[in-house]
Amino acid sequence: MASLLGVSLLARTAITADVTALTMYVVLGLDMSYAAAGGVAATLTAGIALGGPLLGRLIDRRGPRTVLLVTAVLQIVFWLSVPVLPYGTLLGAAFAAGLLMVPAQPVTRQAIAAMTTAGQRRAAFALESVQGELTYMVGPPIVIVCAAKASPDVVAWCVGALIMAGGVGLALLDPPLRAEDEVGTGTAGRPRRREWLDSRMIAVLVMAVGTTTLLSGTDLAIVATLKEAGQTSWAAAVVAVYGIASITGGLVYGALPRPLPTWLLLGLLGLATIPAGLAHEWRWLCVASAGAGLLAAPTLSTVADAVSRLAPAGVRGEATGLQSSAQSAGFALGSPIVGIAIDATVPAGGYATAGLAAMATALTGYLLARRSSASRREWRTSGESRTATTPADSPT
């Protein structure tokens, strides 16, 4: 597990920084606008969102090693060619690179589900969520500093090299993606999608979108609040406090004796985010961010844990790919939605919008899960009734 998390941290840090690296290259290397940089970032993100389930399905069928090696080679080809591509070609190439991004996060989550017992899994996924927070705190800032001090071309090459190194490292580790009692489950025993993509799984995916929508929107609201106060330079400090609080919350949650429902954690996260709009300077914003940040990693970890429990072994790759796609969609939606709210009102409206969006998805997830539970109870009741009135030797 230590080797898995260590190599995964390398790969995920580079993958987390890929959007920033492309943005800095377009702005500094091509001397184009931030809108043009946003276009490249959007195409890369769209490719990642669409490619998650497809790569997951390939992993279910072919195993992780082949998929990891092929995607690692394709990534280094893309990143080495970035400095010589014109902008129009770069847009299409970025989409293809996102579609075939090294599936470090889905493979790590599948391996955690396979390598841990039911009692260990929640703590392991809490560590995985803490790892995710570390990648966001380390990757993008390093890329920004290096691109400003050195060449954005070299930064793009380095990001590609690290993505490839992480993918090859995971392929060499070749972690088990199925527990010992699941090893015999092959494609022949693969359940149909409608059998596992039910209202419970959809509820978890909806809440995955809500969680990352809030996180993406909160980052934008922090910048808008500090810009209005004339304290933009303190934005990095506030984001760092949020990340440290999230790491702390993830570690504490992983040590708790009993888990909490995903909808409850997400609802509390949304509720704790709204009061940050009352802060008008960086010190109070740090306090408010710390309070909300304590719930971020625990919420992300419960989403991953729920997906691993609900997905049968034969489709776990596709399910974790859907989770990654849902979270990518949330990151893509959060900034525009909150940005519109800030432009229409005040920066505090951004926090309110992000918090209410999270609470709305938490409520939706709760209602979907409750509906699924009611359907299962009804099915069991009708089954027991049929058993009581049917002869024992009847084929029904």
TrEMBL record:
Database matches in InterPro entries: MFS (IPR011701), MFS_trans_sf (IPR036259)
Transmembrane segments: 32-55, 67-100, 154-173, 202-222, 234-256, 263-280, 348-369
Extent of Polar residues compositional bias: 384-396
UniProtKB keywords: Membrane, Transmembrane, Transmembrane helix
One function term, GO molecular function aspect: transmembrane transporter activity
Region (Disordered) residue spans: 374-396
Position of the signal peptide: none
Protein name: MFS transporter
Record organism: Actinomadura darangshiensis
